[in-house]
User: Which sequence fits this backbone?
């Protein structure tokens, strides 16, 4: 989206007001401004009776060379809002809650998904899967189902890891009976004419006949309605479920020498150059 600098500065009360703002406040204001313009554009299209115009795969590809960051970079590594921030060091024996507080913040999307899962009476394993299904996006985005499952596999049941691994695949395939439809959001981020690659189709075929199909499916059902910027959510209601279903190592995540410890360490210290 093009930003009209003059209109943006005026909306903040003029150049003097802007120069008094911290760079963080400016970044927040810019994000807010762009969200509002986007809402206006959507509203204008709707008023004109036009459906939202989604980009094509080609149009999305054409954006690649206009950015200095690849789309697959984890959000801890590529700020969407100006410069990255200095991170508070992780405590020595870091728990999952420490990671939510210090590295996954604001974690709004996963908290909303898990809140919805809790309200709709899902099993505790599904609630935990919803809570964890996208946290690996802080590290890396491509194949986030597989990465996300690998990150938590040493600490959760096979079912929870299964649900996280395969929610990525099932997001591409509607299941109206289960209450899941293809998301408009995917037309925006992949392009309106996108078809998933062969390995995703093969994975879907495998899942359709799997006895645990409904585990990742329920993550997608709760994923769909989970983007409400005004929703107030917190980690509080999930502390007991985490206690029962996530085996926190006493040495702290990252120090326990499991196949995913290095992933937790990278999340803990993303500024390490090597
Ligand atoms: Fe996801
Ligand atoms: Fe999600």
Assistant:
């Amino acid at each position: 989206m093009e930003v009209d600098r003059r209109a943006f500065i005026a909306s903040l009360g003029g150049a003097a007001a802007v120069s008094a703002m911290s760079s963080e406040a400016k970044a927040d204001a810019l994000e807010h401004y762009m969200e509002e313009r986007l809402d206006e554009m959507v509203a204008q299209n709707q008023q004109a009776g036009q459906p939202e115009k989604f980009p094509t795969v080609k149009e999305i590809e054409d954006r690649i060379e206009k950015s200095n960051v690849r789309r697959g970079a984890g959000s801890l590594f590529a700020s969407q809002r100006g410069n990255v921030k200095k991170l508070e060091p992780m405590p020595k024996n870091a728990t999952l809650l420490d990671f939510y507080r210090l590295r996954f913040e604001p974690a709004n999307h996963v908290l909303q998904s898990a809140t919805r899962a809790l309200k709709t009476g899902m099993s505790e394993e599904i609630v935990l899967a919803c809570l964890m299904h996208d946290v690996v996006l802080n590290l890396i985005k491509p194949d986030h189902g597989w990465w996300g499952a690998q990150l938590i596999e040493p600490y959760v049941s096979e079912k929870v890891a299964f649900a996280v691994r395969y929610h990525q695949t099932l997001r591409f395939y509607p299941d109206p009976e289960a209450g899941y439809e293809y998301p408009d959001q995917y037309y925006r981020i992949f392009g309106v004419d996108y078809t998933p690659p062969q390995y995703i189709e093969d994975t879907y075929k495998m899942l359709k006949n799997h006895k645990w199909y409904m585990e990742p499916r329920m993550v997608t059902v709760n994923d769909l309605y989970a983007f409400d910027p005004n929703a107030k959510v917190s980690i509080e209601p999930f502390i007991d479920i985490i206690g029962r279903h996530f085996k926190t190592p006493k040495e702290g995540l990252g120090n326990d020498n499991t196949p995913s410890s290095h992933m937790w360490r990278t999340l803990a210290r993303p500024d390490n150059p090597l």
